[in-house]
Amino acid sequence: MKRAVILFNLGGPDAPSAVRPFLFNLFNDPAIIDYPAPLRWLLAQIISRARAKTAEAIYAHIGGRSPLLELTRAQAKALETELNKADDATNRVFIAMRYWHPRAGQTAAEVAAFQPDEIVLLPLYPQYSTTTTGSSIAEWMEAIGRWSLLARTHMIRSYPDNAAYAAAQADLLKQTLAQADGAPVRILFSAHGLPQKVIDAGDPYQMEIEQSAIAIAHAAGFAHPNQKMADWTICYQSKVGPMKWLEPSLDQELARAAADKVGVVILPIAFVSEHSETLVELDIEYRHRADALGITPYLRVPALGTHPAFIAGLAELVRTTAAAKSAPLPDLETPS
Fold first, then answer.
1. How far apart (Å, rounded) are the C-alpha atoms in residues 160 and 170?
2. CB neighbours of residue 201 within 10 Å
3. What 3-state DSSP class applies to 307?
């Protein structure tokens, strides 16, 4: 039996010239800007043009391009190897990026050529949101219609409190905490923010972020009976525009840490790969803010990448999902 596993991720520009079209694809997504198509297209043109220079400056810090595709390829290779170690199926892992190459249409063509007996859809977003996983699945369903991919399809919706995911995060967190050399620190589980109106419309992202934080805290040993809970909290980064976003923000939590005279250890809880939000936003921009506030130490937990426990956990998710008698695709409607 042949099984195709599709890894969904955001994607990122692969050259300075790709920054503006990448931004256009992002803002032209109805899951991001819920306007009628002609108006959304116009707004995406305006926003991408206005933000292009700022985004190019951000990517200039990391060589003018996103490393996300190469890192996702490494995860795909590691997962394929893990799946084929002890599996009756011949597994092949594909990548479908949402806003830059390879897009779902290109990947669907490659999957059709592979002719799998079954397909497992696996988002590299541990927590579900209509703006990430929901959007990626919607584009995938449109793409496979053009290629008549009729293989039985299974969907891994999310895995916010998966034991392997939490264990891998806890392992990296404890390694980073050791660098504090006993200094008082507050752990900040930092997630990419969303407009509050998205959550108010029924999106489960905030709830699943909270599930992830609790699972990691338990896995790291911060919540044993009769033991004082470690100093940790959840916050949100990457706010864009004037509307109200999820709070507390990372800015607010840095200010609170400075007032409390504690250092910070930041764990990017919603990101499983390094990209601009970790390598630039957390490692450069927020580090400068922390320095200005007198926060020390300022430490950042690496993204999961190909951590063995994480990859093994993804492989187990694929196997158990494929073994299920029925695994219907989720309702793809964006809450209104």
1. 14
2. 13
3. coil
What are the counts of helices (DSSP H) followed by strands (DSSP E) for the chain?
12, 8
Question: Which pLDDT belongs to residue 329?
Answer: 54
What pLDDT is stored for residue 114 in this prediction?
96
Which residues lie below 8 Å from residue 259, measured CB to CB, with a gap of 6+?
none
> All domains of the chain, ordered by start, with CATH?
2-158+308-323 (3.40.50.1400), 163-300 (3.40.50.1400)
Distance CA 19, CA 21 (A): 6
Reduce the DSSP state of residue 281 to 3 states and report it: helix
pLDDT for 327: 47
pTM for the structure as a whole: 0.94
Instruction: Return the pLDDT at 229.
Output: 55
Q: How many CB atoms sit inside 10 A of residue 151's CB?
A: 17
CA atoms within 13 A on the CB side of 249: 13
